[in-house]
Amino acid sequence: MWIIRHFNLLRCARLRAHFFPAIVVQENAVAQSEQVEPDEAESTPQVKFDTLNLDASVQKGIDALGFEFCSPIQGSILPHTLAGNDAIGKAQTGTGKTAAFLITIFNDLLSHPIEGERYLGEPRAVIIAPTRELVMQIAEDAQELGRFTGLKTVTLIGGADYQKQLSKVNGSPVDMIVATPGRLIDFMERRDLSLDRVEILVLDEGDRMLDMGFIPQVKRIVRATPRREDRQTLLFSATFTQDIMNLAQQWTFEPITVEIEPEHVATASVDQKVYLVTSQERFPVLMDLLNDPAVESVIVFANRRDQVRRLYEKLRKAGVDCGMLSGEITQAKRTKTLENFKSGRSKVMVATDVAGRGIHVEGISHVVNYNLPEDPEDYVHRIGRTGRAGATGVSISFASEDDAFLLPDIETLLGHSLACTPPPPRDRS
What we know:
single chain, 429 residues, alpha/beta, Rossmann fold, eight-stranded parallel beta sheet, 17 helices, globular
């Protein structure tokens, strides 16, 4: 009977969504990992990287990665940020925003070399991100993109050895720091790092930092840098809430704003399915899915740490070789777990949304929403872990009596309905 009530609820919600549609923002997004050809994304003017007059070593790094055309956010924002303007970007993971701000930083630092003596612990650029995984991913992208620049990047994250990080900071002058807010403040408080010579400040995933309570720490960091008129500030967020816009107004100086439509990031290369299951059916249906040979690599998302822990332990007890990513896991364990997942030694990862933001692994065939996310934006981030690098992927969401009411808001964000079906019949053989 609950399924009948569920469909009646959805029917009413979809009628409301029809008469009160979501506001559509400016541009459609195409993932950076997909090459944007001139006949695609017709609403966005196509920009080739080699027309941006980039430093030769930056252009060489882009060429080595095989990219020719900018993604929509890159084509929209780079002409302004390369000219030194502040920018606010609304963009999901997978739109190429990381490359946009890295290209801006590398090009600016190389175009304006420091003459005279440089001092240890005085970075020229700082990137702040909310999670350790995201910081590590940004640093990895920086290494790839900036491999020919000769610029030094240091990663500062909590849960890792402070002295080892300090030795990297003190080894030679640092060009760029990528850090979580807490660990960066640790370095500032111990006077191991000074931000008074920062030329470019990047604040990535501003909405997530707000949700995680990092804004007081970020404010301290921003105050330690030169005044906003004397630095370039780039702020990126998946959503533009009033709180985010208020912070952007405080931290940026005459910024340009670029908004990227999230729905195409979610739907372009991902086959989205919703299975109607009872709470008791979730785990057996998940096990059937994991036994399917077509499932090569899968991330299973749950909403809370305790849910992730229970599901991980249940899978291990059932003989599934899997890893777990959540805020309670130490950094050393996280690193090893991600390495096993990336290498294919384990094909199943159970994660929370916060930990999942930093997972950028090619070849993930499936994403499973064991619980529907309470925030529709998290749905987009979750399923964006698959269907990358030109490949197709599958997302499977379980909707049951305790969370089916969350579907209408997800559909409103996507701009289309999601087909709800029973799971495939179980193989009893």
